[in-house]
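User: Okay, second chain of the day. Same drill as before: sequence in, structure tokens out.
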Amino acid sequence: MSKPGSKLTVTGKTRESVILYLENVHDRKFSDAERELENLKSKRFPDEEYQMGYINAMEGLLLSVRSGDDRDFYNRTNGNGKSLDDYVKEFKEFRKLPIRTQFDQGFFSAWTDIVQYRINTE
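Assistant: Same drill. Structure tokens below.
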């Protein structure tokens, strides 16, 4: 198992905050996760629109895990035959497409980090 924060798109204090947030979500400590999500909103990102996309994805993750709905992407990634590494590659490809907005870049960067964290900790 590698370090939880290796290969994440964020760095420094933002990375520390993301790791803490993801740990809390994984451990179903939703109040702690919400506090860390608020903390994450004060961190530095490439720009405001990118940050909005990144935070939006993180909020979606919290809602998904909290609900436990098997139709949600995160809750069904284990049983559909596709490896987590394949998802990381796919999200990185999405980020490269020229029609993506900064919001999209942030959104797919967050999902890259979410799945990469899962790879690092499983």
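The mean pLDDT is 86.

User: Thanks, on to the next one.
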